[in-house]
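Let us begin with a simple case.
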Amino acid sequence: MERPGTAYTIEINPKIPKRLSRLEELANDLWYSWDRQTRALFARLDPALWDAVGQSPKILLKRVDERRLVEAAEDPEYLYSYNRVLSVYETEHVDASHGGGTPLLRPDDMVAYFCFEFGFHESLPIYSGGLGILAGDHCKAASDMQLPFVGVGLLYRQGYFSQTIDAEGYQHAVHVNAEFDDLPVLPVMREDGGELRIHVELPGRSVAVKVWRVRVGHVRLYLLDTDLEENAERDRNITHRLYGGDKDTRIMQEIVLGIGGARALAALGIKPTIWHMNEGHAAFLVLERMRRLMRERGLDSASALEAAAANTVFTTHTAVPAGHDRFAAETVAGYFEQYCRELHLDEETLLSLGRTPGGHDFNMTALAVRGSRFQNGVSRIHGGVSADMLKDLWPQIPPVENPVSYVTNGVHVPTFLAPDWTEIFDRFLGYGWTQRVNDPACVARINEIPDHILWSRHQFLKSQMLLLVRDRIASQHNRNRGSEAHLDRILRLADPANPDVLTIGFGRRFATYKRATLLFEDLDWLRQIVSDAKRPVVFIFAGKAHPADEPGRELIRQVAKVARTAEFEGKVLLVEGYDLRLSRRLVAGVDVWLNNPIYPLEASGTSGMKAGINGVINLSVLDGWWGEGYRGDNGWAIKPASDALEQYQRDSEEARTLYELLQDQVIPLYYNRGNIGYSREWVKLAKRSIASILMQFNASRMAGDYVSKFYVPASQQGRLYRERGYDTAKTVAQWKARVRGAWAGVKVRRLDAPKKRISYGEGMRIEIGVALNGLAPEDVTAELLLSPADGANGEGTRHALASAGPAGESGEHRFVLDLTPEPCGRIDYRIRVYPCHSLLAHPFELGLMAWA
């Protein structure tokens, strides 16, 4: 019955007893997102409320019954756990001497890591998927390693959407405003007691930006917020929603992240020596750093770009062209008109930083590449794909040699390894094994875990997963007004009390290239696979499509349609509300993790790593990380079909491989149980999966790779370019301008008569003449590339030609090489010349090359 009058709401917060006062401190440090003992402290106060508030410590402390807090403060067992957590917390995160960071970085180094989204835990919903989770894992690993590291992002009022799916399979996006007081964030305060604000200029106005601080163990994350009363409504909405709004909203978000982020760090007195852009969303920070260098150091724009780029790292995460942000040149010119006036910079110079050859739009990835000297993809395959995608930015360099490298992603083991495995690993690998996870001898002890213990623990985790899946599906089914009898039919195989059914999981973003529906390519064949009553199979699908991605939403409808058919009902389950909690349960509880993207469009795919470390076995296309992780004995691989085929043919070929693997290997191996109740061979495969993936694909290895491959060189290059009032940056900028101006006139020709045949051990002299067009001989390197004609024996070798003075009266300069080739048989060799300077970060960073 509706009651008259206005309903007012008030929240009555309990007082935390003095003996438990530091619970508030723990609730404001995302260390709890990977320390389970800390989370257990909060869960024990009120388990039902803990789940109801989304496992948010801060909200729990606001809503828990005060009597429960008083009881806990008098409970010796709870106090013991509380004090034990505090002891570990102080040892790990207050005592700066513990861990020691890395000796590779200097004491004054600081990494600033910019990203559009960060995924630490469901209690801070400012992430959508893989990019954010990866950024969160990067920060957690940096904390574990005690790296000098700060993160910079945006604090979204709504974050990403929550998902519901109706009876017809249509996805509905539910957006909820967050109360920042309920999040583990605190405003940054000035010395005078006021909240820190910085300002960012947009056309005709200045936008105020509030700075929030998030504690992530040793790491600090600074989040920017424009939802302030002093801003106009359209500017308050800039940080309203992650990946929401139109192109204008997106460019304003990226201006706030890049320019506002750099200004926030300056206002905080933080002086990064290494700048890391995780995706191109933050690339406008390059322009802000140029602005500061031009205003404060008097540099011209070219020198400022060299100085800013010298210590900047750029990581790209997408192999799909649509994943690279582009804005109309006119739009960018409008937003940066004041910038250009202030810096006496012509509009075309600014726009050229974001243009690709032949393009008109402003490409944020192009700006990120030109504004950095260290670039990488996120797996070995993706590194090659990215080098090819970005080849136009180094137009004369073969893609295989351009500066794009790679660091394969890893996952934060303490976050994604189920607690039940942690206990077992402590017993068999030894206490402190997480610090030795990269040691083969340590990880090899996985084999010492008795088979029956590994199997029973996985079955328990599977039961826990099925409980959550059943709860989500029941909620979904009841909301869609389904009957109880029908729900029982749907869930008959997903039985936590009988977790012996082979369960295969697919949990990821519903984007077309990830091919969620490849499994349904031949429904007749699939029907045969799942119809054996003695060997049942359940497929669990979960994931979101972007609300504006209609093809992705259609994939969800296709899965729902198959799941509703009589022959697949209960054997194909679609679970709504994909989030970190469901993800953690799935990757620890299913038996097989399925991933079948279109090769080579899966940049990395970290969900398979999370599954693998939990003893779940991967069944995946050899793309992304699995191209490195698959060893023939630790899972199953779907070899990509020839890219010469039409896409429908590739789908058909790879679906056939998937069906064959399921029918001939996966299902028989799982159900080959004999008299002991489980398959010994399956358990051996699970152990190999854990051991191989745990050691190679963890976030500490990933962070260590970034340190050695990029952070240390970037720090060194940045210091070099700052020397003597940025004289080095000026020198390099001037040299590059001179080389670019002359290069069109640089020509290479052969002076000697090429020999067709020589005897083994016989030498040959190579002589070339180079028209340098005003350049000096020391401005270039002349090089011979030697390789077998059939390419069968590797990539070959490089041999430098020596400067040998003028080549007669032709005006050319002569370069020579005396070479005695080692291999017999036919060999190919080519001769090229490219600019060289000892101060370059990469020998081919100019993208210029001339061939004989």
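The second case is a distinct protein. As before, the sequence precedes its structure tokens.
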Amino acid sequence: MEFTSRYDFALSFAGSDRGIANQIFETLQSEEFEVFYDYNEQYRLLAEDIEDYLRPIYSSEAAFVIVIIGPDYPKRLWTQFESSSFKHRFSDVQ
């Protein structure tokens, strides 16, 4: 499978689900997919305006967004931001 986006996948999850996210990341990476996983990009996130950096990733730079919806997902500020950045992608789905 080949994608033309910067990332094949972006992971969106609450911190309490990091263990699951890490397993998904490792599996996808072992299959040679490009995956946006915040833990691996901390050095970039610290040097940038985080919202300006993340918004395009979830909006369009990842071909797919994998959302891990645990009990904390709707309660967290960053997951709300991430989901608001990708929710428009569902408007064309019928």
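Strands lie at 7-13, 35-36, 62-68. The first strand starts at residue 7 and ends at 13.
Keep these points in mind for the review questions at the end of the chapter.
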